[in-house]
Amino acid sequence: MAKRALILVDLQNDFCPGGALEVAHGDEVVEVANRVQKRFELVVATQDWHPADHGSFAANHPGAEPYQVIDLHGLPQVLWPVHCVQDSDGARFHADLDTARIAKVFPKGTDPTVDSYSGFHDNGRRKSTGLGEWLRAQGVDTVYVLGLATDYCVKFTALDAVTDGFATYLLEDGCRGVELHAGDSEAAIDEMRGAGVTILDSGSIGS
Ligand code: VGL
Ligand code: ZN
């Protein structure tokens, strides 16, 4: 029998309307997250959790503007508005998210020198967040992913799950994208599908 876990990606205020890095309709996925949790015996969450001096913040690069791409210690880095600063309101989970069944939260993006879109590894794949090892220790071989944002953290989390050997499903209606460029979310879905992620709607896994 497959042992399944649900991974809730970055369901945080800063990625919801009114937040510092708002994703259009990002708050709409909270209902999906709450509804599908009961289909899983194991639920985990990732949390974008940056120190104020994080290298992904445009504000920390004099003269730079948000959404510009720079080289950050050898990796291309989109510069973002200051978001999800540790212990700030913006970094907290959306107030309507049911957190009672979240077995463990995996913070990411804590190293100021490298960003971490994936819930598994930093963008340079130098360090693990511990998520993959923890899931394996629980006997998990299958993961379902939803959250924010489709074209960044959701995409890289799902791709890493495949790379790490998990059977990987994406609940597409439980995701919304940043869409820096129109079509980014659709391209991300195509990329995930091409890598072996099965794309589903939350309605297809029961309610
Ligand atoms: C994210 C950009 C910067 C995300 C996090 O959660 O998709 N995007 N930090
Ligand atoms: Zn971030």
Give a brief outline of the structure.
The protein has 207 residues and is an alpha/beta fold.
CATH fold node name = Rossmann fold
Proportion of residues in helical segments: 10-25%
In the residues, how many domains can be counted? Answer: 1
Please give the radius of gyration in angstroms: 16 Å
Order of helices and strands: EHEEEEHEHEHE
CATH architecture descriptor text: 3-Layer(aba) Sandwich
Q: Which CATH class applies here?
A: Alpha Beta
Report the count of strand segments: 8
Question: What this model shows, in words?
Answer:
The protein is α/β, with parallel strands linked by helices and 207 residues long. It has one domain: 3-Layer(aba) Sandwich (Rossmann fold). The chain is built from four helices and eight strands. The strands form two sheets. Strands 5-2-1-6-7-8 form a six-stranded parallel sheet. Strands 3-4 form a two-stranded antiparallel ribbon. The longest helix is centred in the last third of the chain and has 14 residues. The model has no long low-confidence stretch (mean pLDDT 97). The site of zinc ion has 6 residues, from loops.
Salient structural properties:
two-stranded antiparallel sheet, globular, single chain, 6-stranded parallel sheet, binds zinc ion, 207 residues, alpha/beta
